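hey so i finally got around to running the thing on that chain from the lab meeting. sorry it took forever, my laptop kept dying and i had to restart like 3 times. anyway pasting the input first so we r on the same page abt which one it is
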Amino acid sequence: MKRAFVFPGQGAQYPGMGKDLFDQSEEAKKLFLLADDILGYSITDIMFAGTQDDLKQTKVTQPAIFLHSVILAKIVGEKFVPDMVAGHSLGEFSALTAAGSLSFEDGLKLVYQRAMAMQAACEMNPSTMAAIIGMENELVEEVCDSIDAVVVPANYNTIGQIVISGSHEGIDQAIEILKEKGARRAIKLPVGGAFHSPLMEPAREKLAAAISAAPISSPVCPIYQNVDALPHSDPGEIRNNLVSQLTSPVRWTQTSQNMLKDGAGEFIESGPGKVLQGLIKKVDRQAIVSSLEI
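ok and heres what got predicted. didnt touch it at all, straight out
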């Protein structure tokens, strides 16, 4: 039975995150303090003692989740021996770093640049996202295609749960039509912008330069990437997929299905929260899911 390690994305943060790692491990402490130096501000203070609102700042959220996820994987020794890895959106950078494709320093720098580029794109194009529950993928796709304003599927999270992304006008129209067509729920999300949509193109352009300059090597095991839900080990393919990720949907349902098909029997989530475990369980109730622990 193969072991898949999965890494969460934005939304998994919580006050006090990572403090237990810092207190219990000298190696973790060194990495957290190194992160403060790299970022030029004390992210550890915000993670360990900040409020939920402090953690919602874009320049904090993404690096904080990355640090919690990667440092945990680095300090558990033999508990982290993956046959395959994957990460949801931001979590893809955590997965690549934990699997040795990116160094800790380069991974953190890219995540910070990604966060700032996304923030700038959000300010340039006011936009939002909405969760659609209880509707077939194809129906959601058809409705998005039928609307003139920008609105696209952004996150295929699990069976019967898609997040759409776009302009305020596009999202409002889609919510109305999808409710009429029988969606169980269609609700706007409290996010800063239309992630994984064409409105992130300015961020994609900025990040492309940083990704092309970052040294990326082959990971210790295949990484199932968001843009196509397929396993990759070639640094060139990994690089191209990372660049495409910002304006493409996160195919998490398909990623879960492909990992299962390729022999994953156990899914271990490395990082804050248990969101991915719940999503995977909805794809296959028989899947064994757990959290990575010290």
